Amino acid sequence: MKPLHTVALLLAALPAVAGAQDIVRHKIPNSDFPIAQAVTLPPNATIHFISGQVPPVVDKGADPNSLAAFGDTKTQTTGVLTRIQDILKGMGLAMGDVVKMQVFLVGDPAKGGKADVAGFMQGYTQFFGGPQPNLPARAVVQVAALSNPGWLVEIEVVAAKK
To answer: pLDDT tens digits, residue range 8-67?
Structure first.
């Protein structure tokens, strides 16, 4: 009977061990680039999927289907990430809880039709990699267009918290 009692005690302790695990953010080896190579979630993490967010209007006098209404890639990125930050805050979460990010960039006509990755990074690093060190796994892709011709940026995120 004693071996069965020991097994029962060990099995009973497993949820406590799993509960003690943290979200692990794996750094890119030998790099200070502000994304995680991977993020591992423990079994006790709650996962939140935040729908793709688009930029707010920055010039209400401009045509609502124009770049002038929404700004350049940096401005749009900052606006989108601020929206995401507000959504997370309303859910009791913060930007440090973001574990995965998918970024869609449209080619900027002012940049020869290429995505303004530098402008995106200037906006992104206001939220990740500086004072807020929890980095998400991330992908950035250039797309042909978004549903409004004035949008250069759409971002969706996954957040998790123990």
So the answer is: 444 444 444 444 589 999 999 999 999 999 999 999 999 999 999 999 999 999 999 999
Structure tokens at 36: 């995680």
Angstrom distance (rounded) from CA 59 to CA 3: 72
Which amino acid, 114?
Answer: K
- Structural domain spans, the chain: 21-161
- In the chain the beta strands, taken as DSSP E runs, fall at 24-27, 36-40, 46-53, 98-106, 137-143, 153-161
- Rounded to 5°, the CA angle 106-112-118 comes to 60
Cα distance between residue 89 and residue 9, in whole Å = 40
Q: Which fold has domain 21-161?
A: 60s Ribosomal Protein L30; Chain: A; (3.30.1330)
DSSP character at residue 92: T
Taking a C-beta distance cutoff of 8 angstroms, is the pair 36, 20 a contact?
no
